[in-house]
Amino acid sequence: MSEHIVPVRIYVTIFLVLLIGTLLTVWAAFQDFPWQLNTIVALTIAITKATFVVLYFMHVRYSTRLIWVILAAALFWMGILFALTFSDYWTRDWISIGY
Amino acid sequence: MKPIESFEVPPPPKVNYINAKYGLKSWLLTKDHKRIALLYLGSITFFFFIGGIYALMIRLELLTPQGDFMESTTYNKVFTQHGIIMIFFFLIPSIPATLGNFLIPMMIGAKDLAFPRINLLSWYVYMLGGVITIYALLAGGVDTGWTFYTPFSTTFSNSYVVATGLGIFINGFSSILTGLNFIVTIHTMRAPGMTWMRMPLFLWSHYATSLIMVLGTPVIAITILLLAFERVARVGIFDPALGGDPVLFQHLFWFYSHPAVYIMVLPSMGVISELIANFSRKNIFGYSFVAFSSIAIAVFGFLVWGHHLFVTSQSVYAGMIFSFLSFAVAIPSAIKVFNWTATLYKSSISYDTPMLYALGFIGLFTIGGMTGLFLASLAVDVHVSDTYFVVAHFHYIMVGGALMGYLGGLHYWWPKISGRMYPEGWGRFSALVIYVGFNLTFLPQFVAGYLGMPRRYHAYPPEFQVFNVLSSAGASILGFGMLIPAIYFVWSMRYGRHAEPNPWHLPGLEWRTSSPPPTENFEVTPVVTWDAYEFAPREETEVVGKFRPELERI
Amino acid sequence: MASHATTAPETHGHPALQHHFENMEQQREAGTLGMWVFLVTEIMFFGGMFLAYTLYRSMYPAAFASASNHLDITLGTVNTIVLIFSSFTMAMAVYFTQTGKHRPQVLCLIMTLVLGLTFLGIKAKEYSDKYHDHLIPGRLIPGNPYNPVVAEHGDTDPHKLHLLEGATKEKVEMFYWIYFAMTGMHALHMIIGAGLLTYLIIFSLKLRFDPEYHSPVEVIGLYWHFVDIVWIFLFPLLYLLGRHLEHG
Fold it and tell me: Which domains does chain B have, with CATH numbers?
């Protein structure tokens, strides 16, 4: 299994994408979007930036399936932590138990 | 020609891993996984006895309904420290760090684990955590319960919470490093021909355990740090008076601590798979089911932590989800028990000491697991939560399950580890004493708890005394039973009969090297062409139940 | 993923080949896998704090917005750019090691270290500002307990706390312990990363790495990128959450 060398132009492109993303997220933070969109926009930009770092800077795009599975597992597990904990907090006032 | 016989066992070398190099430095700076396993063996035995002393103190106090042996604050410290030492410094490392470290490279045909220096580091980290915790115990102890519930632990307790927490935090890294090492080793260092489905089930269990170690331990790490932060800085992370939520602490704490119980029992299940298959001379029934149910336990084990929060302000709807999932997590464990018993059916069982422990495990783990289902149902849990029913349940799993597996494995692989046989008669005797003592200790506790005796109380209403007296009597028998192997193992290192490379006549790779093995395990990397439990023809094996006098020395 | 082992032990090979591995390929694979498994533990570690953040932000939205607005957005943005730049130079360092260009490799590593230290310096300035505004939570600093001055309506003093409707000083403290816990833990990881980079620079100068053996560079690169990713999330969640309410 030979090692894949990522060309410099890809690194430069990703770097510029990340810079633009940063400036974009700062700009978007000052716009008053309706409902929860501010948070959604900020998180979407952050997730996109992180994805680019993972895929290209960390070489996951060129890595074995095992690495993909490991990464997916970590994110899934964090998801379990969030999902089941919030299954408690978000359903607490569905039923009144007297306090 | 069967593939097993074609693999020649080399003649025993004069130099093995024990006498390869002498001197304290050669042990304390070793990179050999086998020596590191022995370092761990010594340390965890030490911590086990400390935890055991705390247990005997508890049982002494509970002989009488009044709190006459110690103050309630002292008692709080005693049961807290019993829990912390036993869980973090004995049970969690026990099988993985001793048997796992020793055997995993050998079972996959490798010379060592993937990262030998990280292996040694994990032992030093464990010792550092242990030293800090012992310091905290000696300085005055901690009285919050091993569960460290807030806001008592953050605001009101006057004991050494931060120091103990620091010890546990550091110890957690030992767990993470061990798990990391095992995962990488099993993925990248299997001998040619050793496919995943040819691996002994011991490896599958340890792989699953390592997944839990790696995914769960960091969460308790951050939880302890936040606990310490709150205690030192007096902010309101988990304190309701300052805006925090104590139930958040419990969510974070149990997110790790429930999977932690699977860290404690999965390796033991791996040992039992080995013992059942090898001492009944039969391939494990449903190998792939047992292998995948190890992974299933590891995954499902992360989905059920809310069952520790049924009686808190956790939402009832979340409670229902967690209850359902808790019933589901019993299924893979049950699959294993069914497969083990199916393996025993029409097999050639020999009742050597390791097999006695394995058979004990199956029964006791089943009781422990079924009583877990009682606790998983919401309505029953409201009644028995925080009573001795819970205490009995988890001791059936931890002692009746995990510890039995550990002792069974230790006896089984003792010839490989030390090059000596333990005395078989004493082995069987102590196994029976432990079994009787254990049941006498914990069976009455189910009844006491169901009738309402609360846990963590140093004094109780007189109607519970009979159960407590039975329990304490059992504890002394159990304690006595555990001392016997401690003595004869040490005795055997000097006077035990020398063991041949394969004293039990088994196909595993670890039996294909000498007893004790040379430092590099295998002169030549083996090429595996056989399944995990292919046995030699019946004529060569021992006849069922025949006592083997040649193994006796006394 | 089976190893590519031979039946005879390697008696010769790259000087960096460790005795228990069959060949460099296996060693490299093990090293990379090991770092990824470690990063999994880091994800779960920070995950616990992100959980606490999410919970308390949903409980005290106004307080969190007010507290966030008090953070210096310029310093935060500059820090983000600095860290992204350092991730780029780290990736380039790996590239140059893979292609055997020794001088640019060392320069990139040094750049990464310098940028990382810049980040820490700016962070130190931010922390010092919080100290002066009495925003360090609880009694973490014994002589300077949490005691910010709340601005009156119309007062534009940047050192005073401007509370939005529904926010209280006490709930703002909840934000600040999360802020210090998360950025503090992140900074600790950066300091460790700086140490690792120093090791890499020293050993690169000793010509220890070449296209055949550069696992440490790659693996420490993975660590550095991870620390960058944590900041990519921390920045909007801590610094930007209330900006659209700033003048409302």
Answer: 29-551 (1.20.210.10)
